[in-house]
From TrEMBL:
<dbReference type="InterPro" id="IPR003439">
    <property type="entry name" value="ABC_transporter-like_ATP-bd"/>
</dbReference>
<dbReference type="InterPro" id="IPR003593">
    <property type="entry name" value="AAA+_ATPase"/>
</dbReference>
<dbReference type="Pfam" id="PF00005">
    <property type="entry name" value="ABC_tran"/>
</dbReference>
<protein>
    <submittedName>
        <fullName>ABC-2 type transport system ATP-binding protein</fullName>
    </submittedName>
</protein>
<keyword id="KW-0067">ATP-binding</keyword>
<dbReference type="GO" id="GO:0005524">
    <property type="term" value="F:ATP binding"/>
</dbReference>
<comment type="similarity">
    <text>Belongs to the ABC transporter superfamily.</text>
</comment>
<keyword id="KW-0547">Nucleotide-binding</keyword>
<feature type="domain" description="ABC transporter">
    <location>
        <begin position="8"/>
        <end position="231"/>
    </location>
</feature>
<dbReference type="InterPro" id="IPR027417">
    <property type="entry name" value="P-loop_NTPase"/>
</dbReference>
<keyword id="KW-0813">Transport</keyword>
<dbReference type="GO" id="GO:0016887">
    <property type="term" value="F:ATP hydrolysis activity"/>
</dbReference>
Length: 303
């Protein structure tokens, strides 16, 4: 496989559960070394997307190709997954649970303590899974995903139900795995988690992909203009339905515009002047990640 070839290619996937359409024309490419975040509110299709990627959910339409077309990724041990919350045999020890995982993956040469040491649980190898805190259970779930040393890791909301200290430990662990060269796909509804861990992101709403790209391109390259003038009501009236802007909001005595592609501050100033308004304020800013996400969630999604 060439270095610039995607490890995973998802093409035009649809998935329904009776009357509920969970995924609608979902497409995605993941390249080696990326940390791809799947971001969206509850019910947006994140878990269904991961299920389709892993092959545990069959799409109604569309295709999923691994490693340039190989669909036998389970046999090659190339993928490890944690579907939250982590569920294992409560009355078995961590070593015993990992032994079951290794058998399911057909891995003969396996040392439980070697894997547990990677997540800081080597001293708990003989402890029953039932005694672990939610944070340690998620960490153990990551350990199970590491059995067989896979190249690709898939994590479904890895910090779900975990306290702040445990959350930071898990995020540090995922960052360390990325530094080791792993390709990681994770779902989350937490903006801070996506920003901290991911190199790339796909945003879902009601099963449809709204946007996909690098974190910088999706969230931090979004420009906004902040305007003010003595005639604020007139100023708002000329921009609210203008094709020059994608959105127009009032903020503390000013007007915040998200410009259409290619629109410059000079274009905005000229348009205002042509409509009889002399601007007293015109600033070009970058919108925050939170603002960008909120604006994306306001976009209409076709049924």
């Amino acid at each position: 496989m060439e270095a610039d070839s995607p490890i995973i290619t998802v093409s035009h996937v649809y998935k329904s559960y009776r009357e509920i359409r969970a995924l609608k024309n979902f497409s995605l490419k993941v390249y080696p070394g990326q940390v791809m975040g799947i971001l969206g509110p509850n019910g947006s299709g994140k878990t269904s997307a991961l299920g389709v990627l892993l092959g545990v959910v069959l799409p109604d339409e569309g295709e999923v190709d691994w490693s340039g077309g190989s669909k036998c990724f389970h046999k090659s041990h190339s993928v490890g997954a944690l579907l939250s919350p982590a569920k294992f045999y409560m009355n078995l020890s961590l070593s015993e649970n990992l032994a079951i995982v290794s058998k399911l993956k057909n891995i003969s040469h396996f040392q439980a303590k070697d894997v547990l040491s990677k997540v800081g649980l080597a001293d708990r190898a003989g402890v029953k899974f039932s005694t672990l805190t939610p944070g340690l259970r998620q960490r153990f779930g990551i350990a199970s995903a590491l059995v067989g040393n896979p190249n690709v890791l898939v994590f479904d909301e890895p910090t779900l139900g975990v306290d702040p200290e445990g959350t930071e430990e898990i995020r540090s662990l995922i960052a360390s795995l990325h530094e080791q060269g792993k390709t990681i796909i994770l779902s989350s509804n937490l903006l801070s988690e996506i920003e901290q861990l991911c190199t790339h992101v796909v945003v879902l709403k009601r099963g449809r992909r709204l946007v996909n790209g690098s974190i910088e391109d999706v969230f931090w390259s979004q420009e906004k203009f902040v305007l003010a003038a003595p005639e604020m009501e007139h100023l708002r009236s000329i921009f609210v339905d203008s094709p020059m802007v994608r959105s127009c909001n009032e903020i503390e005595g000013a007007l915040e515009l998200l410009p259409a592609e290619g629109i410059t501050p000079s274009d905005v100033n000229r348009f205002a002047f042509e409509n009889g308004i002399v601007l007293s304020r015109l600033e070009q800013q970058k919108s925050s990640m939170e603002t960008r996400f909120i604006n994306l969630m306001k976009e209409e999604v076709l049924a």
